[in-house]
Amino acid sequence: MEEGADKRNVLADKSYQYALKIISACKELTEQKEYILSKQLLRCGTSIGANVAEANGAISNADFSAKISIAYKESLETKYWLKLLHDSNYLREKNFSSLYQLADELSKILYSILKSTRIRKTDN
């Protein structure tokens, strides 16, 4: 197995585990009767892993790069909704910090992959 495939599997695992944490947080939010913002968070927070899964099944480098780009944008959106939920007192500090830190980690990994795939594309 090539090194890039190992990184993709780590990213796929991390983004899947993150989606599970987002689902759990959204369950808590709906118990607080917060439905609108939590739905936004659920959508983008779980979309990261879904797009990583699609990227891993990409049929071309351009397709891979496009899906990673979407996953990266979803991670940024997730961070936005987390901050909004925290600042509006729906997410407690501990839960917010953990989820935000993980989203930030995913963002950095995705950006790094995106940057390297775009560089390879221009080298060809």
UniProtKB/TrEMBL annotation:
Pfam families: 23S_rRNA_IVP. NCBIfam families: four helix bundle protein. This is Four helix bundle protein. It comes from Christiangramia fulva. The lineage of its organism: Bacteria, Pseudomonadati, Bacteroidota, Flavobacteriia, Flavobacteriales.
